Amino acid sequence: YNGTMYGLKTGFNFGGVFKAKFSNLSGRFSIQYTSLSNSGVSEIDKPNSFMEHKQGLLIMSIGPEYGFEVKGNIKPFVGLDLLLTSFSGETTFHGVARVDDGTYSMASTTRTGIAIGGGVDIGIGKKYAVEIGVRYNMHNLLGRSFTLGDKRVDTYISLNDDLDPLFPDDEK
Q1: Which residue from 115, 63, 106, 64 is spatially nearest to 86, judged by alpha carbons?
Q2: Burial letters for 25-61: b for 16+ Cβ neighbours within 10 Å, e otherwise?
Q3: Exposure b/e, 116-127, CB count within 10 A at least 16 = b
């Protein structure tokens, strides 16, 4: 655990995609849930210090998709989505400087962003398709904030995706 990338490392994702097709242009709506986590020694000079971080993202997206005509039931596409992402989670601390041991829930928050992607739809009959694709989600383009509190743990239990007002010259 080194605190980068919001302290997250591995996870899983599942959801569903619904499309309304209008020739080459489609409307796309998706809903998905992503679970991420990480754990490990939090301070190199304190081998007994430990953090475990878990975060859940509920993501809803809507946007247009443009499909290219290809022979048969295979249709490549590119798309752009508007994202609404709800973040939640919890962090467990043990032996971390200036933080009481225990498990703390993250203050749930919502951010707006965009996603770009592409892939291929493989048609199954006239109504259904399997989508194989890649999307790059930028979850927190709008509404960034940094929440300060009375204790150090308060900075861990908020998303804090903007610059720290106490250290504005530091990178995010």
Answers
A1: 106
A2: ebebebebebebbbeeebeeeeeebbbbbbbbbbbeb
A3: ebebbbeeeeee
What's the predicted TM-score (pTM) here? 0.80
Residue 31 to residue 83: CA distance in whole angstroms: 10
Alpha-carbon distance of 86 to 34, in angstroms, equals 10
What tens digit of pLDDT does each residue of 28-57 get?
999 999 999 888 887 778 888 888 889 999
In this prediction, residue 127 has a pLDDT band, given cuts at 50, 70 and 90, of confident
Cβ distance 84 to 140 under 8 Å? no
> From the CA atom positions of the chain, what is the Rg in Å?
20
Report residue 133 as tokens.
Answer: 């694709």
